Amino acid sequence: MIPGSDSIVAVLFGLMVALTAGGALLAVLSTRIIRSVSGLAVCCFGLAGLYCFLNSPFLALMEILIYIGAVCVTIVFGVMLSEPDEPAPSEKRGREWWWGGIALLVSVAVFWGVTRLSLHGPWPAPVAPETDGSVRAIGIALLTTYSLPFELISLVLLVAILGALVIARGGRRSE
Amino acid sequence: MNPRLFDQPGVYLALAAFLLAAGIYGLVRRRTLIGMLISGELIFSAAALNFMTLNRFVAPNPAIGQIFVLFLMGLAAAEVAIALSIIIAVYRNYRSIQPKELSELKG
Question: How far A13 CA sits from the closest chain B CA (Å)?
């Protein structure tokens, strides 16, 4: 046991929470869309750290692999193929502030309500876990109990790839 | 400071609610399709974090929540692929990806 490891772990936890929240804010509030994608990547990195704290290093690796490695990179390609920066506000300033206020009000209400529900909710008492939740347990469950959803998700991914190809090729003209 | 803060579900649940609220705000405020897509990903992440928290602290079998979150990630990846191809097709036809321009079907 390293001396002071408790405080190191607490600092790491705080860092991961701050990365997640800050990345989400950057993703939502920045005007340049490429900064928004970077914010999403930072947010996913923080989430991967939180998954480590939640006893699941396997899902932390998957989060980095799928979200940062696949989703963010794909969105960056989409950014390069189109022209996505936020347009200058064309409406009147008053209406702009009005809609911003309504959106802020709705999201603050959602945050407050869901936090209150989840902090004061009558969660059942924790029970003794049946399995240890290791990669071995996940693999056994995927190949026995959840084999049908496992096959279905592969079918969904195949159809999504084919559909993306067909839709993105459809309107291409030789100019 | 409580040293065992990461062993209680409170912080994780509040953070998931924050991600959901940020995603909803972005979905309402963004004026490009890619920005709305990113906000949708934030909402997906909020759902995944909620699943993982309850899986860790309440559920009897900690493997099930991880499998569910794995499926959720697969669905999110499929959604991003489809949505980006639609965005590229829209940009090719309209030379713009603002949702305001896509009003041809308006009654």
Answer: 7
